[in-house]
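Task: encode each sequence below as structure tokens.

Item 1
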Amino acid sequence: MGEFRRNKIILLFIYLFLSAGLILNLAPLAWMVSTSFKPGSEVFRFPPKWIPDSLDLANYKKVFAIIPFERYYINSIVVALLLTAVTVLLCTMAGYAFAKMKFPGKNGIFMLFLITLMIPFQATMIPLFRMVSSFGWIDTYQGLILPQISTAFGIFLIRQFMLSMPDAVLEAARIDGSSQLRTFWKIVVPMNRGAMATLAIFTFNTAWNNLLWPLLVTNREQMRTLPVGMALFRSSRDIDWTAIMAGSVMSLIPMIVLFLLMQKQFIRGITAGAVKE
């Protein structure tokens, strides 16, 4: 009985600790949403008021009136979606090749990919920018997308998942006369949807929040993405916290929608291999 009671107390403290961590993580988000509905005079009110008196959409309308927010939004969605789709496709194909195909120098080439993970983006930023500029890709979608596709992290992630895929399934497909391309689309892709969903969420999140590269390759306001537009909006005018919070709340919507649509595959992907069958 004493052992059972001790376990219950330990479990209670674990839940309290996790609940405290959850509150600490959700508090900034709750404050951002609350501030987006407040008038400017209540932002720094003390004691702070978490729930505004009314849900006024004036701050959301102000964002669209001051800056071309809808254009920034469209640019970010186009760049993030295309970048995610191409990256997932290329990384899946490369991961399959490194995991299940045999060719000379496979391990050495894969190690070279892993070495690039240790090179910071700042080290390659200038030569990459000069290449994009020489191609005439400044202020273009290809300049925003192509230099960032097919990351070494994505290839590594997909390869590790595919190493656990049974070789017998692929061999059976070859015996039945299936080509490599057909095997890839009909067998490999369906069996690795969890890994692909995990990579898609990571890639979309990185592309959606990327500030440095879009800031370098965009000069015209019509080609700016949402992080760049919001950053310049804050630096070029008096800091309107209510409008900034309103824009930040709207910028969260695509990430929330993506996770809700892919949460089952994402959870299956990050927990793969955690339980032995």
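Item 2
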Amino acid sequence: MIELFQGSSPETLDLLHRRRSTSAKAMGEPGPDAGQLRQILQAASRVPDHGKLFPWRFLVIEGDARAKLGEVLEEALVVRNAGVGESLKRFERNRFLRAPVIVTVISSLKTEKPIPEWEQRLSAGAVCQTVLVAAAAAGFGANWLTEWCAYDELVTEKLGLAEGEKIAGFIYIGTGTAPLEERPRPVLDEIVEHWTGSN
């Protein structure tokens, strides 16, 4: 039994225990409206952030912009392999049409304070996870993906990434169209140790 403290939120703990990712291939309309999306991003901006640097930013892709980004992906694919087949080109054109809203979390390295890069990148990862949790709390399915396009120079250039920036994740958000399936989880006793200082 978890000992509760003043201001506790059992509902939040329950959500965290139940949360599962919704496959991007199993999403449909509706996605969050402007107000709901703002709430999700506001929650995600409250993650731990050593130095108060805000070493991340959001790039929202929705509506017709999803298809335009698909054209960029097709272009990047052809640059990688000029002989690529039409079916794969079509898949990449449609990649970002899998969900109504895609939140791109961009890890943006800051140098004005001596905060280690590793800590700044971890903060961006915390943003991605919090987007997932906030989306679930708002009643939506969400999936954190990177895939090849997050690391492609042409794609990141077209998305306007600057030096020191990396895509931490494309977070697909929409309404699930299939039941969620549980996945294997770690056995807690196998991954938890208590350091006693005796070794």
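Check on item 2: The chain has seven helices and five strands. The chain has a mean pLDDT of 94.
End of task.
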